[in-house]
Amino acid sequence: MLAVPQECVDSYHFDRLTSEGNAALADGDPGRAADLLSQALALWRGPALADVTGGSLLSAYGTALEEGRLRALELRIDVDLRLGRHRKAVSELKTLVNDHPLQEVFHIQLMLALHRSGRRPEALDVYQRLRTLLVEELGVEPSSRAQAMHQAVLSSASSLEVPASEGQVTIAPDRAEEEPAPSPAQLPPDVLDFTTRVDSLQAILDGLASPRNELAPVVSLSGMTGVGKTVLAVHAAHLLRQTFPDGQLFARLRGSTGDPADPADVLAGFLSAAGMTDDRIPAGLEERVAAFRTWVAPRKVLIVLDDAATAAQIQPLLPGCPPSGTIITGRAGLNGLVGAVHVRLDLLTPADCVELLQNIIGRTLADGERQAAEVIAQLCGRLPLAIRAAGARLSSTGWPLKKLAERLIGASRRLDELAFADLNVRDRLLESYRQLGEEERRFLRLLSLLPGPVFTANGVAKLLEWDSDTVDKLLLQLVENHFLRVLMHNADDIVYTLHELVRFFAYEQVEQELGHYDGSSDDSDLL
Q1: Can you list the alpha helix ranges (DSSP code H) found in 240-383?
Q2: DSSP 161
Q3: Which candidate, 291, 301, 290, 174, places its Cα nearest to that of 246?
Q4: Which residue in 20, 23, 51, 383 has its CB near the most CB atoms, within 10 A?
Q5: Coil, strand, or helix at residue 97?
Q6: For residue 405, what is the enclosing H or E element?
Q7: Residues 186 and 248 sit within 8 Å (Cβ to Cβ)
Q8: Helix or strand run (H / E) with residue 219
Q9: pLDDT above 90 coverage of the chain, percent
Q10: What DSSP string runs through 208-234?
Q11: How far apart are CA 200 and CA 319, in angstroms?
Q12: Backbone phi, psi, residue 220, to 5°
């Protein structure tokens, strides 16, 4: 039997340091506690008695040592979380969860660390994996403590935030946390009167929840002028801020103005927001793309590209790999984005129109006013931009809803009434109209002369005495640019509809052309 002083045995020092760490924590000094516990754990170089073959007594002693190590490790991680070292703890906890799948405490700590790191969906996924494992392996549900953490993460409870006790002494965090890289926050303000589009909003959130085929997730929103693409994109981006904790970038690409933004200029703005000084920003587009993708690669950043012109304009602005994501809005030309989730926005429902009008006016409508509100919504074509303009006019003038409804009924003044400050339906339609080719513009003007807003491809071809291929091509162009919608189709024909406000706008263009008519050509040339 070998007699060795206890001071020469690592297990003695481990127990001493662990006890001192517990005492420091009880005295309200978590910084010293973390230091002592880290020293204790540093004594371990592998499993206890790994190279010793022993009987049941020695095995029991080795198990007790291992249990002590796990308790110290659990306590040290708990102290790190108190001190705001959640980002550093994530990697270690993921390894522990993998090595000790039935230790619920490590799952709970990992959920907390992920939540504090802005990775809430991953935190919820940890709980689901734990529950599946326990149910399938042991036939039991997670403990009440694990369930409580799950509920707290679901509700983003304030109790999950890093505690800030007065006078608390903290350890200096990792250098990356002490001097964090700039986190750009460029999102425009969220819209207070937002009317929820449940399905479209969920499609955006789901599309950005996880990478698809190892590509950075991309969601594109398309729809006619004034349908609310930007409003929905910004609203979704605000909901996702905690999911993308390393920042949010925003750029208006001016795709509908005829003067689209240069991707090189947009990238210069992104790199500047990331903290790069002007003298370090590369000069050429390719170099800026490389610099931007290098910066964004290890980060989880949300990029919102508003009013895109074409897929070619967007490509240089996309991250090269997960975990960052992108939301893009545009009126046309986005179908060429490989791997993107495409969300097409339709008009609001009548109920959503009334709710939006109430939110803008700032009060609940009386029973007698709801009918007038429904008429206004219908005369606005259920287009959010038009309803916002109508609501702004009502708020400014104090008119009763019935008066505005009566003024909107006159087709000749409809677009005049739907213009208030920068909310101008005619101007926005004109921007899109100018992006069409001359042949498409001429065809749209002809469609406005039809007796009704609903027609078929074959009917238009016969009426104009044009070949069906030409008509189909032009109709497709107008659908792609959201001037027309497809109502239904069958084996024989396709039924299209022209939005009422688009129809009024196109007819105004006919009147303008006729106003410049000097008698030198026939009517068909004018249209």
Answers
A1: 263-273, 285-296, 311-314, 350-361, 367-379
A2: S
A3: 301
A4: 383
A5: helix
A6: helix 401-409
A7: yes
A8: strand 218-222
A9: 35
A10: TTS-BTTBPPEEEEE-STTSSHHHHHH
A11: 23
A12: -110, 135
The span from the CA of 16 to the CA of 37, in Å, is 10
Alpha helices in 262-344 (DSSP H): 263-273, 285-296, 311-314
Predicted confidence (pLDDT) per residue in 20-48, tens digit: 888 887 887 888 888 888 888 887 777 77
238 token code pair? 């605000």
What are the φ and ψ backbone dihedral angles of 336, each rounded to 5 degrees? Answer: -85, 0
122-165 residue pLDDT tens: 888 888 888 888 888 888 888 888 888 888 888 777 777 776 55
Yes or no: say if 435 and 310 are a contact pair by the CB < 8 Å rule. Answer: no
Structure tokens at 332: 């046309």
Under DSSP, is residue 81 helix (H, G, I), strand (E, B) or coil? helix
C-alpha–C-alpha distance, residues 525 and 365, integer Å: 50
* pLDDT given at position 149: 87
DSSP E strand stretches across 374-512: 419-420, 423-424, 454-456, 484-489, 494-498
DSSP one-letter code for 43: T
Cα–Cα dist 214/121, whole Å: 18
Question: Which tokens sit at 430?
Answer: 């004109």
Rounded to whole angstroms, the Cα distance separating 3 from 133 reads 46
Per-residue pLDDT band at 430 (split at 50, 70, 90):
very high
More confident residue, 392 or 163: 392
Question: Quick one: 268 exposed, middle or buried, by C-beta within 10 A (0-12, 13-18, 19+)?
Answer: buried
Sheet-wide strand order for 484-489: 454-456, 494-498, 484-489
Name which of 59-63, 291-295, 476-480 the model is least confident about: 59-63
Structure tokens at 191: 């819209």
Other C-beta atoms closer than 10 Å to the C-beta of 166 total: 4
Neighbouring-strand partners of residue 250 = 304
Would you say 209 and 83 are in contact if contact means Cβ atoms under 8 Å apart? no
Closest of 122, 117, 111 to residue 84, by C-alpha = 117
The whole-angstrom separation of Cα 198 and Cα 25 is 47
Q: What pLDDT digit, counting tens, does each position of 12-22 carry?
A: 777 888 888 88
Question: Rounded to whole angstroms, how far apart are CA atoms 388 and 348?
Answer: 12
Q: Which residue has the tokens 């390894």?
A: 95
Structure token pair of residue 256: 């509908």
Stretch (H or E) spanning 328: strand 325-330
Q: 3-class DSSP state for residue 165?
A: coil
Residue 222's SS3 state is strand
CA 479, CA 520: separation in Å to the nearest integer? 33
Residue type, 122: E
Two tokens, residue 509: 């263009």
